[in-house]
Amino acid sequence: MLALFMYPVSGILKLWHSLVHSVVPENAAWLISLVLLVLTVRGLIAPLNWMSVLAGRRAALMRPEKLELDERKKQASSVAEMKELLKEEQALTKKYNYNPLVGCLPSLIMIPAFLGLYRVILGMAQPQAKDHIGLLNHHDVEAFRATELSNIPLPAYVSMPADTANYLGVTGDDVRSFITPLLIAALVCTVLNMIISQARTYSTLQYDQGVTRRMFYFMIVMTALIPFMLWSAAMTGPVPVAVILYWFCSNLFTLLQTIVFEFILRKRYPLTDAVHDLRRRSRAAFKENKRQAKPSKAEKDAERDRKRTQAKLQGEARKELMAEKRAQKAAAESGSATGSTPAPESTDTASADSIPTDPTATGPDAADTAPTDPAPSSPAAANADAADTTPTDPPQFNSADPSANSSEQTGRHHLRDD
């Protein structure tokens, strides 16, 4: 499964080597290509990291309003009330442009990229590994393994056996003295990066939420343990020099990226006073809960029943909202279809409006050209129809000479008789 992730990473490494090899010697080409590989992969993943960090900050900014809505949900007693609260929650997430999937999706993409990058470097650096790694052929792998950094081969590691040391022409002590500065620098970058991340988490931590609080404490412990774990793995495990170089480049990039992200968050997405006040109130509530006695079984059962009722109301309200969305979507589709094919009513109206009429016509001709309306169902409707169909312009009679109008009508009657 991991071999699938090695192909794109090895392809990037081979591309960089083909570009760099034309400028610098073979020995330096693989070292520069290794650094460029790390920068390329981490640079491609950087936007995903930013999406994850930004999603966390948006969640923190909307949390005060979100918790207020949650409290109102607890007091909801009907599906209609719960539906209104869900609409407000949707409007809130739209206001902050928050999508919870954005915080999870980048990790699902970054982890395979990290695994592929690590597997390519580890496979190329181990002398006993296979000679064909991803898109790199036998010649590429052998040239990479022959690359040296300060007379230390990239596949060498501290705890390598004697036959491997004789094959590479270097001892474990030489490797230890060379990798110690790189390893210390990599560990310093790792610790600083974790400290900045934990400081960001602390500024929005909810102490009264057990899972969040325990995860924060766990990460503090890991911040102290990870340097010892990495040091032990580098000094006692089969960790080649190439992997140590990768650790240094990757952790340095991560530290610089974290600093840049933190600067952007503080400038463009600063935490509000409501967020800080919420953190202080959650800490006070956590201390108060520690002093209080544990809830009785009856209280736990009542709280469990309340949560079940709330979940049931939310489920029914969500079903109704989904039904409304489907109905609106169907109405919009039918409306677009109706707009492309005119309805008969609109056709009749358009044809009636397009008939030219003589504004001075009266008598039978005017009755023939006038559109007929259906009979009203009630007197009130008749009055309304009469009000609606009353022309805005009065009939254009010649008020100065009424006899002209009557003579015109008489002339028309004579024409019909003829």
UniProtKB/TrEMBL annotation:
Summary of subunit composition and partner proteins: Interacts with the Sec translocase complex via SecD. Specifically interacts with transmembrane segments of nascent integral membrane proteins during membrane integration.
Compositionally biased tracts (Basic and acidic residues): 285-308, 315-327
Record InterPro entries: YidC/ALB3/OXA1/COX18, YidC/Oxa/ALB_C
UniProt name for this protein: Membrane protein insertase YidC
Membrane in keyword set: yes
Start-end of Low complexity biased regions: 330-343, 356-372, 378-391
Start and end residues of each Membrane insertase YidC/Oxa/ALB C-terminal domain: 30-261
Keywords: Membrane, Transmembrane, Transmembrane helix
